[in-house]
Amino acid sequence: MTTHKPGPWRHYDAIIVGARCAGAATAMLLARQGLDVLVVERGEYGSDALSTHALMRGAVMQLQDWGLLDAVKASGATPVTRTSFHYGDERVNVRIKSEYGVDALYAPRRKFLDRILVDAARQAGARFHFGCIIDDLTRSADGAVSGARLRDEFGRIEEISAGIVIGADGARSTVARSVGAETLVEGQSATAVVYGYFQGLPDEGYRWGFAPGMASGVIPTNHGATLVFAGVPSAKYRETFAGDLAGGFGRVLAAQSPQLADQVRQAQPMERLRGYTGLPGFMRLPYGPGWALVGDAGYFRDPITAHGITDALRDAALLSRAVVSGRESGFAEYRYLRDALSRPLFDVTEAIASFDWTLDEVKRHHIALNAAMKVETAVMSRLGARLPVVPRRIEAAA
Ligand SMILES: Cc1cc2nc3c(=O)[nH]c(=O)nc-3n(C[C@H](O)[C@H](O)[C@H](O)COP(=O)(O)OP(=O)(O)OC[C@H]3O[C@@H](n4cnc5c(N)ncnc54)[C@H](O)[C@@H]3O)c2cc1C
Q1: Are residues 44 and 127 in the same domain?
Q2: Within 6 Å (CB) of ligand 1, which residues are found?
Q3: C-alpha 309 to ligand 1 mean position (Å)
Q4: What mean pLDDT value characterizes the chain?
Q5: Rounded to the nearest 10 degrees, what angle do helices 21-32 and 110-123 cross at?
């Protein structure tokens, strides 16, 4: 952490570190409220992320509220109107009900979804620097975060001041580390995932499969391509996949559903398989003087419940309300709502990612997950997309 020196640097109402679903959505919401926003992203505009990308109802509802669902549909995302859960040989079918104006789910690839959010934020007036890194934060004399140090692709350093610095920089957040954000909850469970994209699989909606010690998923994405993943406990990554991603992937699918494994063998692989080794979940304190965290930077849960993007969009909406309010109580409400809505999801995700269940137990975990998601969508639909009127000046939080 460097000490902020007065100087002729550019000032923004908010600097956001990270331009994916949490950062770009927060930027869009703040810029739409008239705030002067800079977003710094070390990656490239429109790039993909190491992530599967099934959206749950809450995310689709937010995208619709923000006027972005048509762009998602135009990206070629397949509407998902049914889901099936497979517990060993037992199959449970679920129709996606029309609720809160959402009659289908979508799973757009991140190269489409994140770009749609960035474009909407730009249209609202937010400024983006891609290929740049925030490597440190600056502080004012009272210790509050007052800005950030930006390093561009040529190694040039610039210090930029801001009313608030928002870390939307993922689970290994530089902002969280720099401010020493307290870890409030630490998970123990982690799933390792290998996934790929295939053409030629039948469209049967979302398909989630569970067998002792393993999981799988089939997710329709864009332009007829289907994402298929195979998951095992993180501790089993090496023995299952190391040195032979494709072999391990095929074996996990076959052990759960020979029929699915056959379909995937006959389908056309589109890209190389990708492997993710897993990381236990956590919840961090999401704000302090002059800073806040949103998305995975503040709250990370294992991907087995496919809920991270939905959470990121939800928390972008909640945090932007707090920033716009400019009040400590607004940030306290952000923390309260984030934690109250996330904790049941976090706990059930931990239970599923432990792989320490019978098929009956994991079925019950899914019923609890569904109940938590219902509460989340009900609360978010009440809060709606509309934000309070903007004060132009933002006081440092807390
Ligand atoms: C294998 C896997 C499968 C998943 N499947 C699903 C799913 O099906 N559905 C779902 O909803 N969620 C899923 N998730 C979770 C989802 O990917 C995350 O919750 C989501 O990406 C969080 O978005 P974010 O914007 O908070 O962070 P990220 O997507 O991690 O983005 C953070 C950005 O910050 C940038 N950055 C980091 N540090 C700096 C810095 N110092 N300076 C500048 N830029 C920086 C990074 O380049 C990155 O682009 C999955 C995750 C994994 C790993």
Answers
A1: yes
A2: 17-18, 20-23, 40-43, 49-54, 133-134, 168-170, 174, 193, 276, 295-297, 303, 306-310, 312
A3: 8
A4: 92
A5: 20
Copy the structure tokens of residue 36. Answer: 């002067």
> Hey, what are 33's tokens?
């409220």
Summarised one tens digit per residue, pLDDT across range 40-85 is 999 999 899 999 999 999 999 999 999 999 999 999 999 999 999 9
Count structural domains, the chain. Answer: 2
Q: What is the CATH number of the domain that holds 200?
A: 3.30.9.40
pLDDT band at 394 (very low <50, low <70, confident <90, very high): very low
- The one-character DSSP state at 256 is H
Closest residue CA from atom 21 of ligand 1: 309
Please give the residue that has the higher pLDDT: either 19 or 385: 19
Does residue 378 fall inside a structural domain? no
Domain of residue 20: give its range: 2-54+109-187+280-358
Whether residue 388 is predicted with pLDDT greater than 60 in this model: the reply is no
| Residue 75 lies inside a defined structural domain of this protein | no
Is residue 185 within 8 Å of 302, Cβ to Cβ? no
Of the residues 276, 309, 343, the one at which a domain ends: 276
